[in-house]
Amino acid sequence: MRGVVSRTAISRSGVSRSGVSPRGISPRGISRGGTFPGSGRGGPPRRARRWWRALVAALVGLALIAPPAAAEGAAGYPFRDPALPLAARVSDLIGRLTTAEKVSLLHQYQPAIPRLGIGAFRTGTEALHGVAWLGPATVFPQAVGLGSTWDPDLLKQVGAVVGREARGYHVQNPGYNGLNLWAPVVNLLRDPRWGRNEEGYAEDPLLTGALATAYGHGIQGDDPRYLQAAPTLKHYLAYNNEVRRDTTSSSVPPRILHDYDEVPFRAAISADAATGVMPSYNLVNGRPNHVNPDLNQALRSWTEQDLLVVSDAGAPENLVKSEHYYDTQAEANAAAIKAGLDSFTVNDQNSAPTVEAVTSALDQGLLTVADIDRAVRHILSIRFRLGEFDPAGHNPYAAITPDVINAPEHQKLARRAAAEQVVLLRNDRDTLPLSAATDRRVAVVGPLADTLYEDWYSGTMPYRVTPVQGIRERLGAGGTVTASEGVDRIALKEAGTGRYVTASSAAGGAALTVSGTESGPQQAMDVFDWGQDTVTLRTVANGKFLSLGDGKTVVNNAAQPTGWFVQQQFSLVRQADGSYLLGYAGNDAFNHGFAVVGADGRLTIGATTPEAATRFTLETVSSGVASAVAAARGADAAVVVVGSMPFINGREDDDRQTTALPAGQRAIIDAVRAANPNTVVVLESSYPYSGDWDTGDVPALLWTSHAGQETGHALADVLFGDHNPSGRLTQTWYRSDADLPDILDYDIAKSGHTYQYFTGDPLYPFGHGLSYTSFRYGELRLSRSSVGADGQVEASVTVTNTGRRAGTEVVQLYTHATDSRTTQPLKKLAGFQRVQLEPGRSTTVRFRLAAADLAFWDVTRSRSVVEKGDYEVMVGSSAEAIASTRTLHVNGEVIPPRDLGRPTRAENFDDYQGTTLVDESKVSGTAVAAEAGSWIAFHDVNLGRGARTLTASLARAAAGSAGLTVRLDDPVRGRVVGRATVASTGDRYRYTTVTAALSGASGRHDVYLVFDAPATIATFRLTG
Prior knowledge:
Keywords: Hydrolase, Membrane, Signal, Transmembrane, Transmembrane helix. This is Exo-alpha-(1->6)-L-arabinopyranosidase. GO terms for molecular function: alpha-L-arabinofuranosidase activity; beta-glucosidase activity; carbohydrate binding; xylan 1,4-beta-xylosidase activity. It holds the Pfam family Glyco_hydro_3_C. The strands form 12 sheets. This protein has a 6-stranded mixed sheet. It has a 6-stranded mixed sheet with strand order 2-3-4-5-7-10. Strands 11-28-27-26-12-13 form a 6-stranded mixed sheet, with helices on both faces. By secondary structure, the chain is an alpha+beta fold. It has 21 helices and 50 strands. The longest helix has 21 residues. The protein has 5 domains: 323 residues, Alpha-Beta Barrel (TIM Barrel), CATH 3.20.20.300; 191 residues, Rossmann fold (3-Layer(aba) Sandwich); 119 residues, Trefoil (Trefoil (Acidic Fibroblast Growth Factor, subunit A)); 119 residues, Immunoglobulin-like (Sandwich), CATH 2.60.40; 120 residues, Jelly Rolls (Sandwich).
């Protein structure tokens, strides 16, 4: 058995005692370490000093110097002595730094300090599923694919390879190829429309925490003293939308924050599987995450190790610019440092604005040197653990050379990971596996049949094995593979002149012209349909895609769609007269428009309206569907490979609008299935699809992420049965986009998001995945039927392989509170194990379930509680396929009726309507912002013999007043027992105390606070 994980093991782990993007620039001044052109820099400090400026310039000039030889005498400093305790060494070095040197270390690009023999250091090497952006390296499946393995052992091995290859690159350029790795992403995949869905592991916090812990441990290595590399968790907290991501606030009630969003971060940090954390761009409950007090108060309470908290790229400037949270960069940087931020990723390699802002904050008294020392200690602690300041021969990882990059054993692991993450969704009549003995003629068709795509955080693949290549290799010389991408080949002819759009045959491409008088290879283009009227156009002349060049010229120079602004996106817009417009659909909105033909015959995106655009006649040279059908007809089996393009169908800064498969791709599936009954569909995507796959006429269906360089080998391994599929879904696949609430709704309990709360009928449930063999579950057994709040129980079940093939089952344990004071998840993953069994063999799977694993956040007392009651303990192969259930009685706490006579924070409501959680102040606290007609509810309140006074802390920024009505048992028809009025306080952060008399408020009731106008409430109480 492998991958044994229980909720106890994750949530209660003991504490160990032991960028700049080369790919482009993002909107709003946000790049992977970049600044949007023209956005400017932070202003100079109010009391800037000339000598500070001179020193800043000198330090910036040293930023990229290679690590210098130790300065004379530096080798004898205590901080160089590996025999001393780490804390003492860090303190010694901090004591030798000047204030200016300390401040210089707060930027992503930390300059060398030659007088102490200290080299340059850079935070932020991307390493999500392989080392990225530094050059060719082993590319593993996307994180969402690694998640579908449900295999922590495998993820630790993958993480170890990533850390090893990071060391290999570090040797080549120590000052730039850093060992502070920005991975893994542990944001929960709450909504499949999130543009960055491929970066996370699962919608479940236990599974995500287990996999992140394994990946982080792998990156770090197993040495008790030294780090192989330093993993950084992304992105804290409650971040699942790209739309207005730097200004939207995730309104998350306390119980969801504690029991859902925080869990995977807490799991990895408490297991010492992370050395750092990156806050997210968004706000949570009204406060930007880069000044979230959790950075110090929560994250650092989960471990005794130092954590290096790094900003996301450009986020420090957002505090002033897009978010307008602070007036000056000095105020913003000071607030961030006080909240717990240590390293500023902003302005690319130019640290001067950061240094100037922090220096100004020191001059103004917004920061103390002690604040700087605290941040520098967190930074240096990681650098020491990486072995940077130790003599040669001490750090075992220092011996790693670039030879490890894409080593043969790494390629082998990439192939295994790519195979293990494949999920068999459907397999009617045992269509799969194919037989190399009988299925000798295989058609492989579809737009993803003979290509592999990288995503924004991919490394550069050293080689690519496509599905066509992998299947052809598997069949060998005796087999035949017919292939077709299934895309239409077209030519565009200017309607007015009859001349054809013509492409250059040069390898580097050139501007497209309207010059051809006949249709031939230079006029032909292949149309790839990515849905929602977005296509990419590949010219036959040189095999390159159309792109937007300088001066909005249309050129054929792109090997694949890529870049921050994906300028290979176009649309073919049919007009009423049957003609077409060529539209530009890239995500740089300022360039949108339509193609026009200039006097020189060149195509440019020069028309802002359809009326001003050039019209074209579209000629279909060959039909993609017909080509796919021709390839499939007569084959022993047809494999249709469809799916997403990671740079187009949702990605960072671009949420997807639908989870439906593009109509053009579905047409290929339907046509091939009609031509060949033995059709297998491979969905290759970064996210779940909605649709009618469970009722469609496709006998076999597989899902894979974009699985890296070994995708083709892995698919062939699965299709032909060399690998029995064992992947399991880590997200709910909804039947329709209509099943999803607003992407900005973060309260999964109220909205019915994820398998934990979804009451509908999913297309495929969380945990689903089939095998080429079958498994039988025995009855679930509990070692005891009752347990105390501090006790534990063993849950066990016998699993038998009843099929004819060896296979791996992922046994899943779930729990559910049958009766609770609050709304509980319908099911909650409590543990999982991967079980490998030969045919006919059985094994007993055992889980340790602690009563503490059943705890939830009690808003009535702001702490976790194990509630007394009965709990269903369930075991099965998915959240829906439950094989056996037992009841466990837990002798926990009985949550008493609410006592609103004590000061009560308004955020700790039990229910609400129309309200939003906001920041009580810019430093700390959460309040409730109400609108006219909105309300918050507090259930099961003991008002005793009578509450006579309401006292509330309220704010109202707008002019006029707002009324607060207290009702019992119903927000509309309930009895009114009191009413308070708050006049304008002039500022939403300025609170006033309001009182009102209550009448008839006695006994046990649900209490509703109902607002008739906008106001903000922080605390209240009902007293006798």
